[in-house]
Amino acid sequence: MTKIYLIVMGFILSIFFVTGCSKKVVKTDVEFKDNAVIANDTPPNPTSKPVGIDLQKPVQKKAVFTPITLYFDFDSYELRSEHYAEITRLSFAIKDNPDIDIVITGNCDERGTVAYNNLLGMNRAAAVRSWLVEHNRVDAGRIVIASNGKSKASKCRGEDCWQEDRNITVAEVK
Q1: How far is CA 169 from CA 83, 117, 128, in A?
Q2: pLDDT of 18-70, one tens digit each?
Q3: Dihedral, CA of residue 27, residue 31, residue 36 and residue 39, to nearest 10
Q4: What is the CATH number of domain 68-172?
Q5: Per-domain boundaries in the chain
Q6: Does the pTM of the predicted model rise above 0.85?
Q7: Would you say 105 and 126 are in contact if contact means Cβ atoms under 8 Å apart?
Q8: Residue 138 DSSP label
Q9: Is the pLDDT confidence value at 1 over 90?
Q10: Nearest to 128 by CA among 151, 146, 114
């Protein structure tokens, strides 16, 4: 009897191992855009048609947010408290649009070395990214940071011009 039990159990287990779990095949559409790969893993569902939407009409993409600029003090990458509300609005725009990524670019005035200003610009961009991630829970993987250093500084001189140059810009990654 034990022999028959072992044979039956072995047969049943072999059926499970041979057949395994059924796997759902998902068609993946891959698009190449500006040397980046964008994958759409959502399987098409031809039977579902949203009520009240004309599928023949082209859908216009709404603007996610307009590019913003935040300013910094001389030789600093500390965020000004006056910018917290602007950064919070930005975080809502990012979270409400999961299909977009953003780039934060740090800029500096003409004073200082190229290397120092490149690092300072990167630190300014990183400070905004950190605030978005830590305080507003935005996925860090959706934020690219960069630095122009002083390469985009204006040609005019004086504190008013330099203040305009000490900033970060936030834009949607195209």
Answers
A1: 13, 16, 10
A2: 455 444 443 444 444 443 434 344 444 444 444 444 445 554 455 556 788 99
A3: -20
A4: 3.30.1330.60
A5: 68-172
A6: no
A7: no
A8: -
A9: no
A10: 146
